[in-house]
Amino acid sequence: MMDIYQILKKLPHRYPILLVDRVLELEAGKRIRALKNVSVNEPYFVGHFPYRPVMPGVLMVEALAQAAALLAFETLGIEPDDKSVFYFAGIDNVRFKRPVEPGDQLLLDVTLERAKAGIYKFSSQARVGEAVAVEADLLCTMRSVA
Fold this sequence. Notes:
The protein is globular. It is built from two helices and six strands; from the N terminus they run αββαββββ. The termini are far apart. The protein has about 150 residues and is an alpha+beta fold. A six-stranded antiparallel sheet has the order 1-2-4-5-6-3, with helices on one face.
């Protein structure tokens, strides 16, 4: 539904913090399913952990937030510009269930639960195969930076 070139047009993130490689499904106003391919070449694996590389939990949550931003932009029907940023407003009910390692594909599922007064609430879950790696409720908002 959206390849890396389309994602790069929507998200301001770039290497090494761009954490969505492909959008598989997207229903504006409802949900998104996206993919993050986890490679041993990711820079954070050098120190987290050299003897057994594991994707940091905070980056798994960031990947979910980037998918949520893509859903929000499609829902609003807008193209983001360099005058606005989609920020976290809160993260609740985070649970890490499984480590994510090089070679894994992280399947990102995000559902828009509510949009009110510029605050978006999403339920989210990332899986490797059928195993849940992380789940979280995300609160996000768009703010002008100009």
